[in-house]
Amino acid sequence: MEIQEALVYIAGTSSTPQPTSQYSLTAASDETEFLAYMVRKSKYVNKALDEAVPLGEPVHKIREAMRYTLLSDGKRVMAQAVGTEGLVGGQAEDLAGEGMSFEENDEAGLEHLEFIHIHKTAALLEAAVVVGAIMGGGSDEEIERLRKYARCIGLMFQVVDDVLDVTKSSEELGKTAGKDVMAGKLTYPKVMGVEKSREYAERLNREAREHLRGFDSDKAAPLLFLADYIVKRQN
Q: Entry's InterPro entries (predicted)?
């Protein structure tokens, strides 16, 4: 499932003032249907982008930046998300932190970890919802609230990912378990412990949902369900 592309669509329709056909709160209780919904919306956005900026020249990575700049009315949303203020800065800090020694409940370790993931996973999801909200004609206040929602689910995704890495088997995950520990990476369980990491993920979920208060309940339903899906996922 391509979460970023789906978020572009959902954030756009959550903030638009026009009535749209949306995912209902009743349907949101069905995880299989929700995942199918997310896949459909990600394909919808990719199709629109492919038609807007044909594949070819410029090269792929430049094309990707152009696609999202076009969507966000020329605003440099994706450039900021992947540059030194975003993904590049977060990755540099991530690499610098490999092998660093932090004790459990070490505030410095948690601050270092938060910096990394605010600038990596969270930054990319923030960019996706901001692009969608701009396209949907959202107000500055709506865009900011959606951005904060995305930051919460981005951090939450990483917290859950770190917990699963040390509590699930490779067979359950569908990928190598314990790879972060073996690589000497700084993780939430390493800094906070497994149980406190789970509690933190639940807190981030509550904060994410709080940022959606005031949005139309039917339009916000996919965003609410996505937050629940992320915090409860098992692989």
A: Isoprenoid_synthase_dom_sf (IPR008949), Polyprenyl_synt (IPR000092), Polyprenyl_synt_CS (IPR033749)
pTM for the full predicted model: 0.69
Residue 232 half-sphere exposure toward CB, CA atoms < 13 A = 7
DSSP-derived letter for residue 26 is T
Closest by alpha carbon to 154, among 7, 40, 1, 45?
7
**DSSP of 36-100, one letter per residue?**
HHHHHHHHHHHHHHHHHS-SSSS-HHHHHHHHHHHHTTT--HHHHHHSTTTHHHHHHHHHHHTT-
Instruction: Say how many residues make up the chain.
Output: 235
Tell me the two tokens of residue 205. Answer: 């979920």
Contact yes or no for 135/224 (Cβ under 8 A): no
Q: What is the CA radius of gyration of the chain?
A: 18
Question: CA neighbours within 13 Å on the CB side: how many for 190?
Answer: 23
Nearest CA-CA partner of 89 in 75, 77, 100, 79: 79
Instruction: For residue 143, give the nearest of 2, 1, 4, 14 by alpha carbon.
Output: 14
Which residue, chain included where needed, has tokens 């901001």?
A: 130
Q: What domains are there in the chain, each with its CATH number? A: 3-13+25-232 (1.10.600.10)
